[in-house]
Amino acid sequence: MGTTLNFNQIKKTELIEKKLIITKINGNQVTFDLNNIAASDIQRLNDILVKNTVVNPV
Q1: Which of 28, 40, 42, 54 maximizes the CB count within 10 A of its CB?
Q2: How many CB atoms lie within 10 A of CB 10?
Q3: Considering the entire predicted model, what is its pTM?
């Protein structure tokens, strides 16, 4: 089954060795394996996340 996230639920994102780790505001983490994704598409995805994620003060 798929995972649904809203941008306003995202606290931070990390890209580590072709794995995208998204930490939600509630502390839960969702990890996506990006091994079969082209580098240009990973960069595009990261740009979209950075542009649309609400920055929440810690």
Answers
A1: 42
A2: 19
A3: 0.79
